[in-house]
C-alpha cells in the first residue's frame, strides 16, 4: 500500500511538471510592416566610389513564427521582404556625361532594389508587467538580393544607349534586434520592433552596349548591404497562454 501511494504521488508530480511546462510553452505568429533605412555603402551616392549603392529609404514586411519553450527562451523563423528606393540618379547621369565627354546624358532606372530573407535564431523574452514584454533576438540565414539596373542615353554617340542590367545574387545574412509587445487580449498583442539587418551577397553585373569611354563600370557588387528596419505589427498566440 505504501509503495502504491508513493508511485501515485510520483506520477502526480510528473504530470504536474509536464502541465506546468506545457503552460509555459507559447507559439506565436506575427505580421509586421514598416520602414527599411539603408546605411553604409549601400546608401552612398558618390559616382567615383564603386561601393556606392544609391539606395534610399524603402519598406520592409515580414512574417515571423516563434516557439517559446519556457517563459524566457524561444526560437523563431522569419520570412522578410525589403524594397528600397533609388537616389542620386542625377549624380549618376552627370558622372557618365563627364566620363564620356558628351554634351548631355539621360538616365532611366530599370527595376528596383529588393531582398528576400529567410532567417532563424534564438529569442529571449523579458516580462515587464502583466501586459508588456520585451523580445531580444539574433537571427541568421539566407538572403537573395536583387539590384536595379539603368539605361544611359548619350547625346553624341552613334550607339547612344548603354544599359547596366538588373542583377541578383545570394548570401548569408543576419539580423539583430528587439521588440516591445503589449498584450491586447490573451491571444493578440501589438508589437513595435527595431532591427539591424546585414547581408553581403555576390552579385555579378553585366552590361549591354558598353564601350571604352562609357564611364563607370562594375563587374560585381560584393559589398555589405545594411539597413535599419523599424516595424509595427500584430502577434497572435496560436498555442499556450
From TrEMBL:
<dbReference type="InterPro" id="IPR027385">
    <property type="entry name" value="Beta-barrel_OMP"/>
</dbReference>
<feature type="domain" description="Outer membrane protein beta-barrel">
    <location>
        <begin position="13"/>
        <end position="213"/>
    </location>
</feature>
<keyword id="KW-0732">Signal</keyword>
<dbReference type="InterPro" id="IPR011250">
    <property type="entry name" value="OMP/PagP_B-barrel"/>
</dbReference>
<feature type="signal peptide">
    <location>
        <begin position="1"/>
        <end position="22"/>
    </location>
</feature>
<dbReference type="Pfam" id="PF13505">
    <property type="entry name" value="OMP_b-brl"/>
</dbReference>
<protein>
    <recommendedName>
        <fullName>Outer membrane protein beta-barrel domain-containing protein</fullName>
    </recommendedName>
</protein>
